[in-house]
Amino acid sequence: MADAQTEKAFQKQKGVSLVTQKLKAKKKSGVVRYFKSIGLGFRTPKDAVEGSYIDNKCPFTSDVSIRGRILKGVIRSTKMKRTVILRRDYLHYIRKYNRYEKRHKTLAAHCSPAFRAKEGDLVTVGECRPLSKTVSFNVIKVESQGSKGSKQFSKF
Fold first, then answer.
1. In terms of Cα–Cα distance, which of 104, 109, 136 is closest to 123?
2. Are 71 and 137 in contact (CB under 8 A)?
3. Which tens digit of pLDDT belongs to each residue from 38-80?
4. How far is the CA of 42 from the CAs of 11, 49, 57, 122, in angstroms?
5. pLDDT in the model for residue 1
6. 51 exposure class (CB count in 10 Å sphere: 0-12, 13-18, 19+)
7. 33: exposed, middle or buried (C-beta count within 10 Å: 0-12, 13-18, 19+)?
8. Please, what's the largest Cα pairwise distance for the chain?
9. How far is the C-alpha of 127 from the C-alpha of 67, rounded, in Å?
10. With contact defined as beta carbons under 8 Å apart, do 27 and 54 qualify?
């Protein structure tokens, strides 16, 4: 647990007693860790099960539940800590001209340390409770892409 302490405040997983963990670590050199399956056909990442990170907003290792919408988008920015900005492209129909125009929306989502997400990756996000002022989605699945630009319009 010592390597998980990177913040100023003491980091601890909810539902895991540190006293019990020390006793079990002495007996069989195993670390007690809380993780869960979010359901909906999505697998729990290996890093969430075997890793040592502590994230209170991760849907796999905390009490944040995924409910509501499930969306796909391309990561546009990873500059914030544990937060990514997605770009969702779509076509809007103009009845007068009988044609479509390209439009996009940006969306902020929490990205758990279990994922190694980078710009240009296609990600699936699920709606959860509001995690901050602008973030109400959590990254559920990451599909790495080739060398695509973030500004390119593509229907995934």
1. 109
2. yes
3. 888 999 999 888 888 888 899 998 889 999 999 999 999 999 9
4. 27, 14, 17, 15
5. 45
6. buried
7. middle
8. 74
9. 6
10. no
